[in-house]
Amino acid sequence: MDDGGTTWILELEEALLDEVPPAQLKVLLAGRALPSSLRTDVWSHCLDVSGRKSKLEKFDDVYDHPDQAQIRQAAQKFSDIQAVSEVESILTVYLKDTGAKFQSKYVDLLTPITRLSLTRNEKYTVFQTILERFVPVESDNSDSALYHLSRLLLLYHDPHLCNHIDSLKINFSDFSTSWFSSLLSGDLSPEISEQLWDLYIVNSDAWLIFFMVITMLVNCRDHILEINNDREELLARLKRLPGQIEAEDVPDLVTLAQVWSARTPSSFKSKYYHTIFTAPDPASEMEVKSILCLPVSPQEVVSSELVNSQFFVVDCRPAEQYNSSHLSSAFHLDCSLMLQDPTQFSTACSALLGFHQTAVLGGQGEHLVFLEEGRGYKRAVSDSICRSLTEQSSEHSKDKYLVEDNMNMAVSRFLQQHTKFTSILEGGFPSLHSNTSSIQTKAPEEKTGGGKPGEPGKLGLLKDNLKTKSENIKSSLLNYIYNPQPHVSHIHRNSKQYKGTGDVFCLDEDEDEEGIRTLEDVKRNVDTVHLADCQRVSETGQLTNCFLLLTRTHLTTLVNGGSEDKLATVSSHHLSTIVKITSKKRQPEVITFKYGTSNKEEVTVFDMDRFFIPTAGKVTSMVKQQIEKLKDS
User: Fold this and answer.
1) Using an 8 Å Cβ cutoff, are 340 and 454 in contact?
2) Beta pairing class for 325-327 and 294-296
3) What's the CATH fold of domain 516-632?
4) Mean pLDDT lowest among 6-10, 122-126, 351-355
5) Do residues 104 and 181 make contact, with C-beta atoms less than 8 angstroms apart?
6) Do the strands 311-315 and 367-371 form a parallel or antiparallel pair, or are they unpaired?
7) What is the pLDDT of residues 348-407, one digit of tens each?
8) Is residue 164 a contact partner of residue 231, using CB atoms and an 8 Å limit?
9) What is the bridge-based pairing of β-strands 422-425 and 311-315?
């Protein structure tokens, strides 16, 4: 991706000299291909290699590891004599120090590292740091939690695809072991591995490999779904997926992985980090292997309520418990109806999906999170659960288990119907009490949602709840999200490089001083050609809900302006400044608009916006048509 010549490279060189934090390098790189001349410096800086001592410094050149023959043979794959010697020394010292056995993944991981212009000691430090920071532990264990967690992430984003792979009895460990153990270096050429690791190391996100796997699977979903009965053919096709990655695909792969990551509840990362990347924890391992779908922490749900309400909470407790106390934005679903009255339950599910779709269209509640009375999210539906009911002496315990089982069966129904973004709240309803003041308590005679007993909670409750939140908190957060303060070099300290500081054209002279308008005003404006609900992709891959407004002369990005029906302008560009519109080859919903000037020989880009647009084909077509109309006028 080339957007502005070599200026960004000069900025990157200056940032390295200034020893800025790696997070600022990530912003400067912004998905571009890192020049090979800067690779050693960038890796060394981000991995903090300089000045660190390694075990290799005191190596006595005694090559006597029990697997020494395997180590020596594996080192012979390198054509350079110096690389052969370095690999054998590094592996011998590392395996003797850790007491580990030789595995082929170590050689795969060393392949990109041997190409760096570093000393042998520094290469050892890079190797050790990458292993400790990025490579999941127990990747050689086919029943490791990492493979079960990978499946849960695919189930969250594409349950149809996940169910199809499950139906042919294919586990993630059957095809992705080398992907995780070598960070794809064992499946790619050294040149492509280097480019992939450039972005991986700069982003410094250990979880990125999980979302790269999701990206590869989802991008090839049609080729996967077309194989219905041949397990071996599908398995072979899955194993070949990394081989389709070319050098020009690497920035897209990383960007899309960041998009998937941003669209996933993040609380699982802190919950399972230790058992995935440090040391297996038996309790966490068992939990990951047994849960029905991705768990979400109550803290994350409550934080979302304060800012953007990205969760649509489905309360599966009995009606009397829901009426007594519930999260004010929750939708009540009586899961006991699934067995007692399937027809009524089906009607309730249709109502739920209808309210959910309305919430999504309003920019809220994209993610479904189910909750029950408590403690049940760890257990999946199984015969053993049902049998355990007969062993309970307390009627309350039996009722509690029944609620949990009913919820799990309901969640299973939604997953079987390929409902995306389905999760379960950790700890159930009790966990919310200690995390929020948004619990709504009602008198016994009051009806659920103001209607009949057990009636689903209205979507309006969610909006009413948001109105009670601190506008100061929301304004501060929005200001932080949309007005970051990145590193600015001397080259651009007096320029208008960053969004929000460039030329912003007013769309409507009737706007107030702050550029705040209502959604209805925008829709009714005679200049409005099209208004698309989408998400803005930041330079670091973060997603933010927004609207993309196309008028007769401008393309404008609008965001929530502090209240539910107010919109504020983030950026606006005249259509004549759009010099290029590109889409991601493997995910056409990700659209990039590049703004600048052009002549017959040269295109100069001065700004860029990237969006995730569900109706990308329609939007880009309308933008192009409007540009042509301007040219003809």
Assistant:
1) no
2) unpaired
3) PH-domain like (2.30.29)
4) 6-10
5) no
6) parallel
7) 999 999 888 888 877 778 899 999 887 544 444 343 333 333 343 344 444 444 455 788
8) no
9) unpaired
Helices in 417-442 by DSSP H: which ranges? 430-433
Q: How far apart are CA 335 and CA 317, in angstroms?
A: 8
pLDDT of the residue at 373: 82
Helix (H), strand (E) at residue 313: strand 311-315
Distance CA 426, CA 293 (A): 11
Across 190-194, 252-256, 356-360, 389-393, the highest mean pLDDT is recorded for 190-194
Q: Which of 280-284, 322-326, 360-364 has the lowest mean pLDDT?
A: 360-364
Strands (E), 101-206: none
Spatial separation of the C-alpha atoms in residues 262 and 239, rounded to whole Å: 26
Radius of gyration of the chain (CA): 27
Using CA atoms, how far apart are residues 132 and 112, in angstroms rounded to an integer? 17
Q: Single out the residue of 411, 467, 478 nearest to residue 438, CA to CA.
A: 467
From residue 463, how far is each of 105, 372, 496, 563 by CA, in Å?
51, 23, 37, 10
Question: Structure pTM?
Answer: 0.72
Assigned token pair, 279: 């040391």
| Cα 631 from Cα 628, distance rounded (Å) | 5
For 82-91, the CB contacts below 8 A with 24+ separation are 83/114, 86/114, 86/120, 86/123, 87/114, 88/63, 89/56, 89/59, 89/61, 89/120, 90/56, 90/120, 90/123, 90/124, 90/127
Assign a CATH topology to domain 291-467: Oxidized Rhodanese; domain 1 (3.40.250)
Structure tokens given for 31: 């998905």
In tens, the pLDDT along 156-189 reads 999 999 999 999 999 999 999 999 999 999 999 9
Helix or strand (DSSP H, E) at 588 = strand 587-598
Q: How many CB atoms lie within 10 A of CB 222?
A: 8
Return the CATH class of domain 145-189+203-280.
mainly alpha
In DSSP notation, 168-188 reads: TT--THHHHHHHHHTTTTTTS
Contact (CB, 8 A) for 427 and 377: yes
Name the residue with higher pLDDT: 56 or 633: 56
Angle between the 190-203 and 104-113 helix axes, to the nearest 10 degrees? 80
- Which whole-number Å values give the CA distances from 581 to 15, 281, 468, 577, 623, in the listed order? 30, 48, 41, 11, 9
Mean pLDDT on 69-77: 95
Domain ranges of the chain: 31-134, 145-189+203-280, 291-467, 516-632
CA distances from 65 to 56, 102, 132 (A): 15, 9, 21
What's the number of CA atoms in the CB half-sphere (13 Å) around residue 78? 23
